[in-house]
Amino acid sequence: MLTRKKKKVRKLRGSFTHGCGAKKKHRNAGNRGGRGMAGTGKRADQKKISILQTYGESYFGKHGFSLHHSLRKKVNAINLENLPDSNDIDLTKLGYDKLLGKGVISRKVKVIVDSCSRIAKEKIEQAGGQVILPGEKK
Q: Hey, where are the domains in the chain?
């Protein structure tokens, strides 16, 4: 019959130090060099090897930058395939900032928009239409 081995902690209950000698020797994080990844800085040569094996070269140093969310500009864009069915389209009044070139356009349209991709402009001009940007209003 299989018997389970009792854990050592059951034997040490009530022994105050659990077999570690003085009370001060086996307490708190100072005894183990800090908590978690503490002590893994650039000057911890003895730990560098294991850190590089686990996390790779990307563990050390700074990487990239983050732009504050208030500085990011949200661009509301629309594709050619989603343009409304009319000949004169003012996308700025409809709330769009940019015209993108996904899709096919076969009709002649005049589009007023703040910015436009090169491909979208080429496709509209090939269909006989025109794109009017803020700097070139006619």
A: 9-59, 77-136
Please name the residues in contact with 37: beta carbons below 8 A apart, sequence gap of 6 or more.
none
Predicted confidence (pLDDT) per residue in 24-76, tens digit = 888 888 887 788 777 777 676 777 777 888 888 888 788 888 888 778 888 89
**For the stretch 67-87, what's the b/e string if a residue is b when 16 or more beta carbons lie within 10 angstroms of its beta carbon?**
eeeeeeeeeebbebeebeeee
Average pLDDT over all residues of the chain: 86
Strands, sheet with 88-90, edge to edge from the N-terminal-most edge strand: 88-90, 110-112, 130-132
Is residue 131 within 8 A of residue 124, CB to CB? The reply is: yes
Phi then psi for residue 125, to 5 deg, are -70, -35
110: enclosing H helix or E strand: strand 110-112
Query: pTM of whole model > 0.85?
Result: no
C-alpha–C-alpha distance, residues 65 and 5, integer Å: 54
77-136 — its CATH code?
3.100.10.10
